[in-house]
Design a protein that fits this description.
There is one protein chain. By secondary structure, this protein is of the alpha/beta class. It folds into 2 domains: 99 residues, Elongation Factor Tu (Ef-tu), domain 3; 172 residues, Rossmann fold (3-Layer(aba) Sandwich). 32% of the residues lie in helices and 26% in strands. The strands form 3 sheets. It has a 6-stranded parallel β-sheet, with helices on both faces. A 3-stranded antiparallel β-sheet has the order 1-2-5, with no helix packed on it. It is globular and about 55 Å long. Its cofactor is FAD. One of its GO terms (biological process) is superoxide anion generation. This is NADPH oxidase 2. GO terms for molecular function: metal ion binding; superoxide-generating NAD(P)H oxidase activity. It is a multi-pass membrane protein.
Length: 302
């Protein structure tokens, strides 16, 4: 038995040593941005740090807890000279990080007062394969939209730098949210992309649909009153927010008709129930003929 145990244990110890060594490397917080509804963005730099789109890291803040490590998806693009995460303040540890960064104070915080941060990673996810397809469907549920912030930023950098050599030609983006609080920081990114695409006369490159799955009666009345306005009352985007849940069968069939004979990547960051639905739709809407349309499902659950 010991022969079978020693090998895996040796590899495990090596992996733990590598992770310990990486976590001891110096990390500098270059900027802290406070977004609405108690969401903060930490922009950091670390020597030798290299990332791909949609990857995640483990973060430890000794000022809050010397033992706790928490995973966060990177929201920056590989083309940027920093890496960033967005943290929603929803518990004791995130509240401690919020206070340690001085976000509870009104005055400007000096850089040397910011807490020390340890980072382990980055680690890969399915989202890294997004550039392997000409057409992709990106589906984010709630906070599951964070990896697609990195993807959309990177796509835009690549598109501006050399659009002719970019294999990716069409993005269908779906975002499902229960309440309006989650829209704030990500809507800014979509507004920027929407404006820049229109300036380059290629507004069709990115098609996005935002679904609000939960609202109360007073909100519904407000939405109806402002429905005829040019921009959406919630996000400020030209694309109006939809209410309820998508009819996934219709969405898949429509995309299949528009891209016959294509391999279409379906990427999800969301709950297991939605993953089952999208997986079934990917299978049922793929043709048996190798020359027909095929949906390739990739998921990242939380």
């Amino acid at each position: 038995t010991w022969k079978w145990v020693v090998g895996p244990m040796f590899l495990y110890l090596c992996e733990r040593l590598v992770r310990f060594w990486r976590s001891q490397q110096k990390v500098v917080i270059t900027k802290v941005v406070i977004h609405p509804f108690k969401t903060i963005e930490l922009q950091m730099m670390k020597k030798g740090f290299k990332m791909e789109v949609g990857q995640y890291i483990f973060v430890k803040c000794p000022a809050v807890s010397k033992l706790e490590w928490h995973p966060f998806t990177l929201t920056s693009a590989p083309e940027e000279d920093y890496f960033s995460i967005h943290v929603r303040i929803v518990g004791d540890w995130t509240e401690g990080l919020f206070n340690a960064c001085g976000c509870d104070k009104q005055e400007f915080q000096e850089a040397w007062k910011l807490p020390k941060i340890a980072v382990d990673g980055p680690f890969g996810t399915a989202s890294e394969d997004v550039f392997s397809y000409e057409t992709v469907m990106l589906v984010g549920a709630g906070i599951g939209v964070t990896p697609f912030a990195s993807v959309l930023k990177s796509v835009w950098y690549k598109y501006c730098h050399d659009a002719t050599n970019l294999k990716l030609k069409k993005i269908y983006f779906y975002w499902l949210c229960r309440d309006t609080h989650a829209f704030e920081w990500f809507a800014d990114l979509l507004q920027s992309l929407e404006t820049q695409m229109q300036e380059r006369n290629n507004a069709e490159f990115l098609s996005y649909n935002i679904y609000l799955t939960g609202w109360d009666e007073s909100q519904a009345t407000h939405f109806v009153v402002h429905h005829e306005e040019e921009k959406d009352v919630i996000t400020g985007l030209k694309q109006k927010t939809l209410y309820g849940r998508p009819n996934w069968e219709n969405e898949f069939k429509t995309i299949a008709r528009q891209h016959p004979g294509s391999r279409i990547g379906v990427f999800l960051c969301g709950p297991e129930g939605l993953a089952d639905t999208l997986n079934k739709q990917s299978i049922s809407n793929s043709e048996a003929d190798p020359r027909g349309v095929h949906f390739i499902f990739n998921k990242e659950n939380f």
